[in-house]
């Protein structure tokens, strides 16, 4: 059996280990045996997934259809952008939600040339002019239209 000291003497292992430069460049690599230590990850990282996210439903669309009875504050349409435009006695919120301003019945109108859709509320008590317009009509001597 060969002992360890004879192997080291024969291969010159002592010289190889002691004379190794600390930082080895590409040009110095051919000069002698170099020891390179690599550190491996102790645990592999978890893979990412593209699933697992889901947003709440926004519940958009028409809530009150043509001919339905509505009271002030009822939401007629929830929408993104102005797919439907507010008409008579219909208000629009900051998120483009259309809601009623008076009690009555809903009706939808579509302009033939432009294709723009309007939502109106026909008041239950009929068409009522705003007091400013009725006062202007009586001052000018005309009969007020109610």
TrEMBL record:
InterPro entries: Ribosomal_bL27, Ribosomal_bL27_CS. GO terms for biological process: translation. It holds the Pfam family Ribosomal_L27. One of its GO terms (molecular function) is structural constituent of ribosome. It comes from the Eukaryota. GO terms for cellular component: ribosome. Transmembrane segments: none annotated. NCBIfam families: L27. PANTHER family: 50S RIBOSOMAL PROTEIN L27, RIBOSOMAL PROTEIN L27. This is 50S ribosomal protein L27-like. It comes from Phoenix dactylifera.
């Amino acid at each position: 059996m060969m002992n360890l000291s004879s192997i080291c003497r024969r291969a010159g292992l002592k010289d190889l280990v002691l004379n190794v430069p600390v930082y080895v460049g590409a040009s110095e690599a051919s000069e002698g045996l170099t020891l390179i230590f690599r550190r491996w990850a102790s645990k592999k990282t978890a893979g990412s997934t593209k699933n697992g996210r889901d947003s709440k439903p926004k519940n958009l669309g028409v809530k009150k259809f043509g001919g339905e009875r509505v009271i002030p504050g009822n939401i007629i349409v929830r929408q993104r952008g102005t797919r439907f435009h507010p008409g008579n006695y219909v208000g629009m919120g900051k998120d483009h939600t259309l809601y009623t301003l008076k009690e009555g019945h809903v009706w939808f109108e579509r302009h033939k040339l432009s294709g723009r859709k309007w939502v109106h509320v026909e008041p239950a008590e009929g068409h009522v002019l705003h007091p400013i317009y009725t006062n202007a009509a009586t001052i000018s001597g005309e009969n007020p239209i109610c």
